[in-house]
């Protein structure tokens, strides 16, 4: 019987990480990666308009798909390894729902008027959150092309569902982090906190820890913040300086 292993995410642990495998399928910058829910498959999108799928157990390349017409960014698995959603880099700012089995689009989600900066799939159902430079956060259901909810923000929002799919967090550039109850998000956030800000950098993504107790906020600067998800108190900061 194997005992459960835990690892505390602190600076010296992160600094001890080493490269285990290198993939070189892309000819341009990789703009996003995402793991399947079981961790066995990795998907990436690139500025070369490709979507690449990898087998993490075998450490092998499985398949490459191309989106030459629309481009590809922010690729995310849905609840199966056979489909994904991604934002567009060409033509418009539509979010596209793609069958990975036959490389055909299942549905389109139109509504954002500027570049989509954030996509987050609910861990429990077919709901999808998207944030855009148009300063709106939209809620979608993969079964319908119609927007299910709209929240106007004060700045460019990035968002993430918590592990139970009941709460989502929204970070507005470097202004604040807001927590919403999915069942009553139209009533506004139930908690707001303002972590430490950096000059000349924006928050680019945020993720809940698997137990929902922590929030990881990445930036386009030199730091990543780890916060208490309940009160916003800083736990640690990772710096590349």
From TrEMBL:
It comes from the Eukaryota. It is found in: Nucleus. GO terms for cellular component: Set1C/COMPASS complex. The keyword Repeat applies. GO terms for molecular function: chromatin binding. The keyword Lipid metabolism does not apply. Gene3D superfamilies: YVTN repeat-like/Quinoprotein amine dehydrogenase. Transmembrane segments: none annotated. WD repeats lie at residues 23-64, 109-144. GO terms for biological process: RNA metabolic process. Pfam families: ANAPC4_WD40, WD40. Keywords: Nucleus, Repeat, WD repeat. PROSITE patterns: WD_REPEATS_1 (PS00678), WD_REPEATS_2 (PS50082), WD_REPEATS_REGION (PS50294). Residues 195-239 form the Anaphase-promoting complex subunit 4-like WD40 domain. Belongs to the WD repeat SWD2 family. This is WD repeat-containing protein 82. It comes from Stegodyphus mimosarum (African social velvet spider). The lineage of its organism: Eukaryota, Metazoa, Ecdysozoa, Arthropoda, Chelicerata.
């Amino acid at each position: 019987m194997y005992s459960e292993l835990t690892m505390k995410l602190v600076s010296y642990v992160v600094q001890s990480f080493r490269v285990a495998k290198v993939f070189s399928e892309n000819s341009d910058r990789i703009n996003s990666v995402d793991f399947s829910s079981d961790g066995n498959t990795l998907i990436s999108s690139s500025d070369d308009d490709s979507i690449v799928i990898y087998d993490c157990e075998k450490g092998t390349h499985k398949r490459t798909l191309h989106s030459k017409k629309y481009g590809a960014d922010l690729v995310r698995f849905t609840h199966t390894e056979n489909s994904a959603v991604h934002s567009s880099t060409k033509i418009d700012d539509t979010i596209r729902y793609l069958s990975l089995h036959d490389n055909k689009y299942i549905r389109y989600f139109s509504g954002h008027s500027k570049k989509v900066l954030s996509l987050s799939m609910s861990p429990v159902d077919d709901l999808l959150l998207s944030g855009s430079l148009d300063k709106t956060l939209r809620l979608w259901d993969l079964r319908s092309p119609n927007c299910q909810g709209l929240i106007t923000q004060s700045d460019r929002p990035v968002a993430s569902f918590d592990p139970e799919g009941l709460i989502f967090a929204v970070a507005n550039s470097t202004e604040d982090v807001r927590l919403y109850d999915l069942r009553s998000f139209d009533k506004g956030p139930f908690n707001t906190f303002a972590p430490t800000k950096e000059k000349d950098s924006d928050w680019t993504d945020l993720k809940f820890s698997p137990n929902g107790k922590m929030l990881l906020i990445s930036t386009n600067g030199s730091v990543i913040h780890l916060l208490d998800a309940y009160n916003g108190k800083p736990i640690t900061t990772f710096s590349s300086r």
